[in-house]
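User: Hi! I'm a student and our assignment asks us to look at how structure tokens line up with a sequence. Could you show me two examples?

Assistant: Happy to help. In each example below, the sequence comes first and the structure tokens follow. Example one:
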Amino acid sequence: MTRIYFVRHAEAMGNVLEFFQGRIDCDISEKGAKQLEKLAERFKTVDYDVIYSSPLIRTMKTAEAVNSRLKLPIIKDERLIEINGGVWEGRKWTEIAEKYPKEHDTWKNNMKAFEIEGGETMTEVYNRMKAAVTDIADKNRGKTVVIVSHGCALRNYLSFAEFGSPDGLSEVGWSDNTAVSLIEYDDDLAPTIIYKNDSSHLPHELSTLAFSRWSKYDEKK
């Protein structure tokens, strides 16, 4: 049995200032550092064989926290990076809703069809994450793996794992910062979700989503 833990990065400055981070290489916030302390505690009892991370600062620092006990080499994998938000990158969610109403409506209500000038389509993110994780699982058969990535990227992969298509994007929902999902794979690399988007290691005051306003701009209500 192959097992993969998927971890979303800690709160970063884009989460605090509520702009579209995408590929912008933001550092983690003060709350993010506290989230990482709790995440490190959670992984003190988890043994794994290999750890992969998106190369951005916020994911690498999260991977380092996960890896604080075992101290394995962290493998940087560009395929695990966040969606390229094109002209949205660096813009506040309030501005996005006002200046790009059509694209914003698609993001909220028909996420699988999202595309933006200068960026990736959601289909491209879905296919990229599906291919990357399948490759990682294939290369590490019988092992336990950790993958540290980003909110939109992980949402796409979880849609594949649970629904087999991007049609489940709205059902998967957003994970909180440092939330963990666990998936097991059989010999054919068919995924079975054991749990998803679990942030039980965080006390309420360290949640990002519980106190964030951005969800009302980018989440379907």
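Example two works the same way, sequence first and then tokens:
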Amino acid sequence: MKIILESPVNKYYVQTLGMIFFPGEHFGKKNEAEEDPNEPKLYVRSEEREGGIYSYAKIEYKDKSGEAEYFAETTEGRTEERTLKLSVGGAVLAAIGPMLGYRPAWGMMIGVRPSKVASEMLNSGMSKTRVKKTLASDYLVIPKKAALATDIAVTEKRIIGESSTKDCSVYISIPFCPSRCTYCSFVSYTSKRLLDLIPAYLEKLKEDIKENFATIDRLGLNVRTVYIGGGTPTILTAEQIKELLSYIATLTDVSKLDEYTMEAGRPDTITEEKLAIAKEYGVTRVSVNPQSLSDDVLCGIGRNHTAEEFFKAFSDARRAKIHTINVDLIAGLPGDNFKRFSSTMDKVLELAPENITVHTFCVKKSADILKLNSDIYSLRGGDAGKCVDYSQIKAQQAGYIPYYMYRQKNTVGNYENVGFSIQGHEGLYNIYMMEEIHSIFAAGAGAVTKLVDNTGGNVGSRTIERLFHQKYPYEYLEEDRSQAFAKAAEEFYNKHGML
């Protein structure tokens, strides 16, 4: 997609707006001789006028074109940057939407956290009703999505309460899987050569975890949650899980954690013994993730398990008396449809897990599925929107509350991912991490430590520093960054007066 800007607006913002309508588009520079006559071309112009900012947008695509202008008023409490984005967003949506006959459900909201804007409005003193109306009128969000974002913002505020500069969480990465899903782009490894690294990886990981907890102790911080994710943590043997969990128990009092999650993940890696060990060492939350309960769909996306194996794994988790069980589903998977998805959702609701997370199928540029089907990107998402609506209606009818939400680029239909919970079983780590409430100290390949300055109270203006571990396990084994990260964390906390 070619973008021509005569506006001070951030170009990435305009690119992301363009991807709402042209998912999977590239924005690399091309020579004139290489230009594709069918490539979408978007022109945007902005200028300040009395009382606000005026923008004009024009789109040319194949034999179609569209143009529109939009004026965003300057209002009290709204920054000039936000007014500019509202102006440009309104013009782009008004130019492209009618040309393609498509109105995006989230309007011009492109960020990962739709509820962030709603939270800011609520914190400024707006009522829920006014927040919903503002999201619909200013951001062009359809009413049901505006209501969802606002309701989640209210729930998150209740759960978070007063955040402290002394709070933090810990993330531990197990980046290995029994097979690679065709849609996956996470750092997870499946070959025998890489799986053979697990024993050495665990030894290095324990050193990294120890350094993290030592840093947390020196800084005088309080660990609220621990999250073991992946990959698939239960790809470890029962003995390896015991080794890891028992080691963590020597570094912190796990009985004082608000939440201790082990993302079990693949049903074909879960056993009664592994779950019993998790329970013994204080794990309070596990994820058992089928994604779909259609064996045909599972086979098509590279999941080497059946629906029956999921039911057994879920039953094992119940017998282990884990406090909270989460189940992940994906709407809009290749080969899926509304009939199959609604059946999956109904069967999961019958099991009554404490958490249900419904993702929308997202196409990552490094996913294997693009090698098989380069046309997988979808503007309208087929049945995905209907599936997402069904999941939200049925979950809330069954007594679940939507408690956190995030969005990704190149999601079919531009829809969202939503976590639902029985009250009192919300996934706290998910909220702390997504809403950047406090620092997350991370260990393992592909993991990212996120240092958060929350002294100011305003989430939107918090200073954040990210420290990246090596992406691949074999790189992680060769280089030790734990002491450098510890020093960086201490410097960050000193710099921002958080000690």
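Here is something you could point out in your write-up. The mean pLDDT is 91.
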